[in-house]
Amino acid sequence: MSQKPHDRTMAIDRSSLDAGRFRKEHAALAERVRGAIEEHPFTLDDATLRITISIGIAACPAHGRDIVSLVRRADLALYRAKEGGRNRTCVETED
């Protein structure tokens, strides 16, 4: 899957974290970001907008060792989040 113009990717160094702790901490971080955006009223001209986001998470080396592989796996997780109802976070599954 390729990223659409409104899709974004972020990398976080997890070299000091074990896989289980990574999943918990970064899934929690992604969920806090998702929740903050959901709760924040955005304004455009005179309109108040409520927006939501979906987030896909992949980790090195579990999901790849290069940026192309990691983005592809995060993209897969993102689309699982969207297919699951949107406004969700999803961590890529292990191989």
Spell out the key features of this protein.
single chain, about 100 residues, alpha+beta, Alpha-Beta Plaits, 2 helices, elongated
Q: What is the subunit organization of this protein?
A: single chain
Structural class: alpha+beta
Q: Assign a percent range to the helix content.
A: 40-55%
Q: Work out the helix count.
A: 2
The 3D shape can be described as: elongated
Largest sheet: 2 strands, antiparallel
Q: Tell me the radius of gyration.
A: 14 Å
Instruction: Give me the count of strands.
Output: 4
Instruction: Pick out the low-confidence regions.
Output: none
List the helices and strands and how they pair.
Elements: H1 19-39, E1 42-44, E2 47-49, E3 55-57, H2 67-83, E4 89-91
Tell me about this structure.
The protein has 95 residues and is α+β, with helices and mostly antiparallel strands. The chain has one domain: Reverse transcriptase/Diguanylate cyclase domain (Alpha-Beta Plaits, 2-Layer Sandwich), CATH 3.30.70.270. It contains two helices and four strands; from the N terminus they run αβββαβ. A two-stranded antiparallel ribbon has the order 1-2. It is elongated. The model has no long low-confidence stretch (mean pLDDT 83).
Task: Tell me briefly what this model is.
The chain has 95 residues and is an alpha+beta fold.
